[in-house]
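Exam revision sheet. Question 4 asks you to relate a sequence to its structure. Input first:
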Amino acid sequence: MSAKPDTPTNTPRTALVTGASRGLGAALAEALAAQGWHVIAVARTTGGLEELDDRIQAVGGSTTLAPMDVTDADAMAHLAASITARWGGLQLWAHTAIHAESLTPAGHIAAKDLAKSVACNLAATAHLIGLVEPLLRAGHGTAVFFDDPRGGQKFFGAYGATKSAQIALARSWQAESAKIGPRVLIEAPLPMPTATRARFFPGEDRSALTPTRTEAARILARL
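Answer key, structure tokens:
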């Protein structure tokens, strides 16, 4: 995990964004930074994180880059320990990291493709909840997940099943935490021109889709 030398250590609001290098995750990270949050940006793509950091620095924001894979349990445990040591807690966790397999008939899903979907979309989320929950409680924070209605639709088997399982897990955590915290929100973003959607609908007219920055602003307004 790397940080700019001038990153403030006493920022009152700290947000963890998993899947922050592009799409909605990047838009949320930029919007939060513009509002004065310190953003801990997690993604596998180092180049994407560096570009995000450039945009955040350009508007006077602050960020800590964490080029890590959310499926790496040891890396995520190290990240959580580092957050605890440096900031003591979190005020927000936005979980946008996702693995999207190509559209495939249910009977043709390769075992390795399903395993990747389970590892990222379900197992990593479960592990992160365990790590992040005490950080959010310490910071009186909120976790935000992002629903997708494609579970059960034709050809969306691996993605749809594991994304639905992720949201079911989030809903269980939401119910369990209703009285004791942390607050757990589940949002349903409008269709956006993301790389994930482009894999599913390569010939779609993207001009009709909602910009990620518009959706990020709408979602953050609920916080």
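Marking note for examiners. Residues 16 and 93 are 5 Å apart (CA to CA).
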